[in-house]
Amino acid sequence: MGVEIRVEGLTKSFGRQVIWQDVSLSIPAGEISVLLGPSGTGKSVFLKSLVGLLKPDRGHIYIGDRDLPYLPEHQLYETRKLFGVLFQDGALFGSMNLFDNIAFPLREHTRKTEAEVKRIVLEKMDLVGLMGAEGKLPGEISGGMKKRAGLARALVLDPEILLVDEPDSGLDPVRTAFLNQVFIDLNAQLDCTFLIVTHDINTARTVPDNIGLLYQRHLAMFGPREMLLSSEEPVVRQFLNASKVGPIGMSEEKDASELEAEAKMGLDSGKLPPIPPQQMPSNGLVRRGQHAPGAWCAAHGVTPPPGSFVDELGRNWVDEWPRYVASMQAGQAVGAGGVTPPGGPGFPPPGPGPGGAAH
């Protein structure tokens, strides 16, 4: 079971340089959240603050009822055990094989026997698709395998919160899509709280339950996926369209003269792309953090971009979702008897929408 993270008025600076200030948000327990933002906006600094590696200038980080920045050392040490962290490069020890890398937290922080360590390590390696690679060194494997090994290591202490820093860094789009599927399947299986920092728009559009955007030294927006993907905020439209037109410049923000020149020329960052169906777990079951497609938009009177929630087969999942959920529930009820649920093999889960990620 995941844990809620509640952040209130968080501010961090290095010397005179303010990284971000007065950041407040609640990351729901057991859901997948993604944090976006231009380079240099302090996304990795935010992750390090959440786990207590950096102390904020002011503000609060509540992990359950514990206010992380103000905990005494021994309580901070215990609270950190709730976290697993996947670093950008995997952060593997080059002189250790994958088995020993993944076993390291168990040997360092627990008193488990080697037989128990072996069972847990092999279980996590199987979970991320690395069985058979136990004896390989980090220098002998691909970037994608390093990421999965780092993920297995982050999971060995059964964390309730998983922080993931730019998992797409150094990976091609296909491996990124496969890794995203691993995250979704792990969340469905383990029910832990995920926070993923990424620059990959495809990941942000298809994977999470919630999205946040850091910009201009503050949190511009955080909320359900559909809220951000349907927002007409200029910075959101520019980021989602990867457009040069808009408030984001080569340095974090453009000056007033650049924005005025764009306005005079009638330039626009473009229309928001359609919201794709959300990527599903491999078993097709609905995760706890998932909501019916279009539910947030309907509840808030927002018209999503044209073509939203339509997959590659032309199915509109606003209409298909109730029938799909009923089909899966029927399948769970009779699955033990080996009976194919209504619409089973002939009723596949949502696929990628226009521009969406392949499963």
UniProtKB/TrEMBL annotation:
Gene3D superfamilies: P-loop containing nucleotide triphosphate hydrolases. Pfam families: ABC_tran (PF00005). Residues 342-353 have a biased composition (Pro residues). The keyword Transport applies. Coiled coil: none annotated. Residues 5-241 form the ABC transporter domain. Keywords: ATP-binding, Nucleotide-binding, Transport. Residues 335-359 are annotated as: Disordered. One of its GO terms (molecular function) is ATP binding. PROSITE patterns: ABC_TRANSPORTER_1, ABC_TRANSPORTER_2. PANTHER family: INTERMEMBRANE PHOSPHOLIPID TRANSPORT SYSTEM ATP-BINDING PROTEIN MLAF (PTHR43023:SF6), PROTEIN TRIGALACTOSYLDIACYLGLYCEROL 3, CHLOROPLASTIC (PTHR43023). This is ABC transporter ATP-binding protein. The lineage of its organism: Bacteria, Bacillati, Actinomycetota, Actinomycetes, Streptosporangiales.
